[in-house]
Amino acid sequence: VQLQASGGGLVQPGGSLRLSCTASGFTAAHYDIGWFRQGPGKEREGLGCIKAGPGVTRTHYADSLKGRFTISKDEEANTVYLQIYDLQPEDTAAYYCAAERIPPTLVQATWRDPRVYTNFWGQGTLVTVSS
Q: Positive or negative CA dihedral for 80, 22, 83, 74?
């Protein structure tokens, strides 16, 4: 039972990446899936979350991302994606996904807090933005 994040790599400024978060041993669609990142010397930062529920596509994003990040899911592939556009050097970080069943009334207020996610964490995938 695990989450596996993948898709990171070296990208030039202005480029794009799609990160994947694949669940094994459980159904990702039954959980709220959050994306986080942690840069060198920084705290883990909440990027966005897609709500639990088959067919549910409701998402939340950090205001600071200015529309550069999009979360989607493929329920057949048991995978959640994070598409990142216009990457900049300050986006360099390890990117993580996590799964939790957050009470629906608390999702909007708590999704960005990594301490809320106690069930599953992926191992992280490194994104480096450099010319």
A: negative
38, containing H or E segment: strand 32-38
Q: Tens of pLDDT along 40-92?
A: 999 999 999 999 999 988 999 999 886 899 999 999 999 999 999 999 999 99
59 vs 32: CA distance, rounded Å: 10
Q: What is the DSSP string of 47-88?
A: EEEE--STT---EEE-GGGTT-EEEEEETTTTEEEEEE-S--
Mean pLDDT of 100-119: 94
Tell me the CA end-to-end span of the chain in Å, nearest whole number: 38
Q: Are strands 10-11 and 125-129 parallel, antiparallel or unpaired?
A: parallel
Task: Fill in the amino acid letter for 128.
Answer: T
